[in-house]
User: Which sequence fits this backbone?
């Protein structure tokens, strides 16, 4: 059997990820099967299992791609020369919130009790990659005396925890009032800690 060129292998893997992501967002993870994914691409199961051991491995690949895109946007905002630190943080929050809510069906699945190891795995990736640029913004704001002086990296980690709380509350809220209460709570905590209100009402 002829060896499949690396370029084609990578293209097939990318196609599987993109189609699976669309189906997971559209139908939910639980309602999407491997057969649904390969049918869209006219791939065989052999092709699928060559690239992924299971459906959940596709989910992990999707989540890692989504997080990478989100982090790239946060880094772009952090390095923007013409935005003040307060606006940078607000814009970062909006970008992070929007990213997770655009992939709501994916994240709701990872928050289920049976998927706690997966949830923490993805959370750790988010912390390792997202906290440094946010800490950079915090340091910039503290140097400009726009924020209360706190340890930047630890503050960034606490802020990502709060953002995670808000995303989970919003994605699983039974009504808009629940989501609004979460927003008010986080805005109050940030305002108290940093001395600046960041979690603006229009983040939703």
Assistant:
């Amino acid at each position: 059997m002829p060896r499949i060129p690396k370029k084609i292998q990578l293209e097939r893997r990318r196609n599987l990820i993109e189609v699976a992501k669309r189906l997971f967002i559209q139908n939910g993870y639980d309602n999407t099967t491997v057969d649904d994914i390969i049918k869209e691409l006219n791939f065989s199961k052999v092709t699928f299992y060559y690239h992924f051991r299971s459906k959940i491995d596709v989910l992990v690949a999707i989540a890692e791609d989504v997080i990478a895109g989100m982090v790239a946007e946060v880094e772009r905002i952090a390095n923007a020369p013409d935005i003040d630190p307060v606006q940078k943080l607000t814009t970062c929050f909006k970008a992070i919130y929007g990213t997770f809510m655009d992939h709501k069906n994916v994240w709701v699945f990872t928050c289920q009790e049976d998927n706690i190891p997966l949830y923490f795995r993805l959370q750790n990736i988010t912390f390792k990659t997202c906290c440094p640029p946010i800490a950079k913004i915090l340091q910039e704001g503290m140097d400009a005396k726009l924020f209360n002086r706190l340890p930047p990296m630890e503050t960034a980690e606490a802020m990502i925890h709060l953002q995670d709380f808000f995303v989970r509350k919003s994605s699983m809220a039974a009504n808009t009032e629940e989501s609004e209460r979460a927003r008010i709570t986080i805005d109050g905590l940030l305002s108290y800690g940093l001395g600046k209100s960041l979690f603006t009402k229009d983040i939703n």
Remarks:
- The chain has a mean pLDDT of 86.
